[in-house]
Amino acid sequence: MADHRYSTDIDQHDPKIFRESLGSFGTTTKPGGNQLQELQTKVRQGVKHVELHLMGTGKGQFNVQDVPDKYGFEQRRTIMQLAKLNKQTLSVHGSFDVTSFSGLTQNGFDDSIRLNSMKEIDETVKFAAETAKGGAVVFHIQGDNLSNDRSELNISRTYLKWLKKNRPDEYERLKENYFNQSNLNRLFVNNPEKEKEVREEFEDLKTHDIEKYNYYVNKAKSSKENKSPWELYYLERDIEKRKLTPDREPMVLLGNKIIGVQRQNEFVDIKKLTSKNHFNQNEIEILNNLGISVGNITIEDYQKAEAIFTNGVPENLKLKINEEDFFKL
Hints:
By secondary structure, the chain is an alpha/beta fold. It has helices at residues 35-45, 73-85, 111-131, 157-166, 168-179, 183-187, 192-203, 205-208, 210-222, 229-242, 275-278, 281-289, 299-310, 323-327; strands at residues 26-28, 49-53, 89-93, 104-105, 108-109, 137-138, 251-254, 257-260.
């Protein structure tokens, strides 16, 4: 067998060195461009597989966001014959804008969006049938991000049944390590780096927050869950993280509205949280006017105050203050 190797030399004289022409590779047309003209360009280049890339939806935009409906019978037949004469294979890439087969939006399910998505797919498949005469038809659809957490297994029931029948050893391993374990234990399966990180973070509490460290030690002793102090620490820390939005912006309830609070560069020590330490007299007067007590301030009161001073002059503020002075608070 020939020794196929890759070389960066421009002049390759050894016939055994692996060489490839452009005809050995596939390529895509310009997304949204005139697909017939794009295919003609690829024919001249000698490319043997071409993916036609339709970009638009609805009526599209000429030569910018081409759609299947723009190509009539004659144009589709020309594309098919051009590929056949030049012994090219074709595939079709649909629009990027077809994102939801179910019609799910931020405001719930919308049947019109679902029908439009299905129509776009139907038209693209018809276009592929009349031009490529087969091959792949590619779409991008939206979905939930898969978790990076090793504790989450993306295994179908069908595959699990196959494992149980044909690979009982592997099935038992998964059963022992994942299915029969608690959520916390599954998190650290085959993930010593994660466990080491959490343990070190917990041990650091000895130097900067010994009271918190002792709290988890004592809680582990009195707990019936048979968890170590660092595991309890991790669980409570994880719960706090889940209270934040994906961009780590805390949300607080203010009246009948949920408002995001911009996180500051420094953390607030709840034990030292007093109105005198964190608010000046003008700010205290405004908060009292809005019905927020700053005498015995809690972390919830502090978050509400942060939301107020971040989101502009409140409509129900009875005190007279211009916007410029308000933002200085």
